[in-house]
Amino acid sequence: MAAAALAPVVARADTGIPALKDVYRNTFRIGMAVDPWVAVAPPARDILIKHASSITACEVMKPDPIGVAADIYSFGDADALVDFAQGNGIAVRGHTLCWHKRELDWFFNGDPSAPGYKAKVRARLETYIVNVVSHFRGKVYAWDVVNEPAADDGADAYRGSRWRQVLGPDYIDIAFHAARSADPHVQLFLNDYGLEKPDKRARFLTILDEKLRRGVPIDGVGHQLHLNIGSTTPAQVEPALAAMEARGLINHITELDISVYGDPAGCWDTPPSGCQPEMQPDTETCRAALKAQAEMYGAFFDLFAAHESVTSVTTWGVADDQTWLDVYPIQRKNYPLLFDALGKPKPAFWAVADRTHRPE
Ligand code: 9MR
């Protein structure tokens, strides 16, 4: 008795609720992004084991931290996450091999005006991708090979990353061919945000069509979908899914979360004046926001379920105790996921798990 009384109080995933991976078993994989040190402790651990059929690494499969130096790789944290997933029968999505953020300076070392510089950078990118994809061959079912390739504005469809500057638009071809050469079976994705916006989508499709014409082995498109309540509608996202279907591609929803704040347009430009004040839990404002969020989650899952091309839907996080939106675009507690900070199902959970529980 005494021992039980002294046992630490840990939140456990509810046992009497439906498991999302079962509810959507014949529809799409249910994914959650997490890092190994979060995955092994409550509340994430219990939620993942019960509800997830896919795991994405938030951080530990990016070039930084894996690519310590040109010939030194650090796979320990990523392997720990893969072990956790495999030990619990959960598949792994790889994220990401080539991105304008979290890239490493050593890829670009050397004198850009020296002969052979471009070939050197190309070889480093190819070697890195071949080694990483080979390391996880058979353990990862899909890779975000290139992340966020499209520009947000301007005449050039391509984002002006260092990759694009040094290797030209071909950097995407190089990355996908390297990934394919290392694993003939893994699904290869081009992942981006904002594809629900017609101008961003047009830039992305310019890139995609150029690559498909050239026989670049792209299997599917990842739609990040970092949303805010009251902003994007399923009707705006539908054409983005349809555009990829028309090209014979798979759709994955790769980074879904719904901020309870209706900003952040003003928030990005002029923080903090353009931002709503931090929401306190258990207030009328917060309850109303969670209800609006649940309605959105429900409507978006209906959209995804209506598209056979959508084979994986991942939330960017597990529970509200750990979310990048607590610090971005400003520091402010956010509640963007399906489970609350203790791991309890939120109205958003019920909206996707059981339609009879949807808010009135
Ligand atoms: O959630 C991730 C955050 O913790 C990291 O600091 C950041 C930089 O590595 O990446 C975040 O994840 C991003 C993802 O990799 C790509 N799409 C946008 C995500 C949110 O910024």
Report on the structure:
The protein has 360 residues and is α/β, with parallel strands linked by helices. It has a domain at 28-259 and 306-320: Glycosidases (TIM Barrel, Alpha-Beta Barrel). The protein is built from 14 helices and 11 strands. The chain has helices at 2-6, 20-23, 36-39, 44-51, 63-66, 76-87, 117-135, 162-167, 170-182, 198-213, 234-246, 265-269, 284-305, 347-353; strands at 29-34, 54-57, 67-69, 72-73, 91-98, 142-147, 187-192, 220-223, 226-228, 250-259, 310-315. The strands form 2 sheets. An 8-stranded parallel β-barrel has the order 1-2-5-6-7-8-10-11, surrounded by 6 helices. It has a two-stranded antiparallel ribbon with strand order 3-4. Helix 11 links the parallel strand 9 (226-228) and strand 10 (250-259). Helix 7 runs parallel beside helix 9 and helix 13 (284-305) packs parallel to helix 14. Mean pLDDT is 94; it is low at 1-12. The structure holds ligand 9MR. The site of ligand 9MR has 9 residues, from loops.
Entry keywords:
single chain, 360 residues, 11 strands, disordered N terminus, eight-stranded parallel β-barrel, two-stranded antiparallel ribbon, binds ligand 9MR, 14 helices, TIM Barrel, alpha/beta
Could you give the topology of this structure?
Layout: H1 2-6, H2 20-23, E1 29-34, H3 36-39, H4 44-51, E2 54-57, H5 63-66, E3 67-69, E4 72-73, H6 76-87, E5 91-98, H7 117-135, E6 142-147, H8 162-167, H9 170-182, E7 187-192, H10 198-213, E8 220-223, E9 226-228, H11 234-246, E10 250-259, H12 265-269, H13 284-305, E11 310-315, H14 347-353
Parallel strand pairs: 1-2, 1-11, 2-5, 5-6, 6-7, 7-8, 8-10, 9-10, 10-11
Antiparallel strand pairs: 3-4
